[in-house]
Model the fold of this input.
Amino acid sequence: MMEELSLNILDIVQNSIAAEGTKIEIGIEEDDAADRMVIRIKDNGRGMSPQLLAQVEDPFVTGRTTRKVGLGISFFKEAAETAGGSFHIGSQLGKGTWVTAEFQKSHIDRQPLGDVAGTLTSLILLNPDIDFFLNYRVNDDTFDFSTEEIREQLGGGIKLSHPDVISFISEYLSEHLRALNGGVGI
Done:
């Protein structure tokens, strides 16, 4: 099992990239009144056949050719269910895949969310041509981030992987996510 939910997000997004996703949406929703946290990941990649989708939660079924075991989806599902939540995955060939993991936020076995800013910054650094979208909501406050918008601001001359841009993205994400969580690092 992974120690932080942000590592589960990283693994699922890596699956999206391997499936040739060019737009990857990450949604995180925390609702204190409902005692709920939901993480959603959606891509526009190849998608999965109904046969693969029916088996994808089995750790011994993987679409990867580099190894015969795929633990990421089963770990994410286990993390959600262990914390009083649920896990759903859907996919359509040629349209993409979507994953939803729901957690009881106060559950003693819920893993910490971890370093979302660092996870997203790493994904952008290593995949500067992919469009990443983050929507993070805590109760009534929302933070939206889009690499598409950053790219538009930069014009065409500077890549997202440029050290100054990555530094800005890292600081921007960290600052806004801390503010969203009442100044507490997540």
Remarks:
- The radius of gyration is 16 Å.
- The longest strand covers residues 23-31.
- Residues 102 and 172 are 27 Å apart (CA to CA).
